[in-house]
Amino acid sequence: MSISIIGGGIGGLILGNVLKQHHIDFKIYDSAPEIKTRRSRSSIRKNQKIKS
Fold this sequence. Notes:
This protein is of the alpha+beta class. It has one helix at 10-21; strands spanning 2-6, 25-29. Strands 1-2 form a two-stranded parallel sheet.
């Protein structure tokens, strides 16, 4: 059995990781020609208050 994952975003990569842990063949398809690292400036600090 082989599974096709459409989209290499966080959801597709997590699904691929789970399938790999269960020894299930898969292939990830994405429209991006190469993998690029995205940097985020947001962070969560311990005891941080969230305003609503």
